[in-house]
Design a protein that fits this description.
The protein has about 130 residues and is α+β, with helices and mostly antiparallel strands. It contains five helices and five strands, in the order αααββββαβα. About 15% of the residues are buried. Bound molecules: zinc ion (2 copies).
Length: about 130
Amino acid sequence: MAYRTEQKELLTAYLRLHPDRQFTVGELVQALSGEGTIGTSTVYRLMNRLTEEGVVRRFMVGRTVYYQATRGSACHRHLHLKCTACGEMLHLSAALTEFLCRQIEASNRFRLDGDATLLFGTCAACQKEKHT
Ligand SMILES: [Zn+2]
Ligand SMILES: [Zn+2]
């Protein structure tokens, strides 16, 4: 228990070191195993905390849960596009986010939870790859 803060910092540092990558809990446990033992349940608990704090974003592809570092609090204010092929996460501009949210709300009377919404698709690079 005494190491909890340290482990959290370790996790945060690792995720921020790889902002373009997504990780499962298993991968994180493995990645940090060199830094002393960190249990799977500890990582789960810490990832929940980090998700609540906005440090990471949690999303699912199929049945697998992934975590990826955000760009801090700025990521609360815009929508994200996620490439399912390479994992790249794109950050939409605040202006575009606001425009889209307004359009959706106006036409569907549906209020988008921008903070929790991730739009899945294929990024430009991966589209290119498919066609060549
Ligand atoms: Zn963002
Ligand atoms: Zn891609």
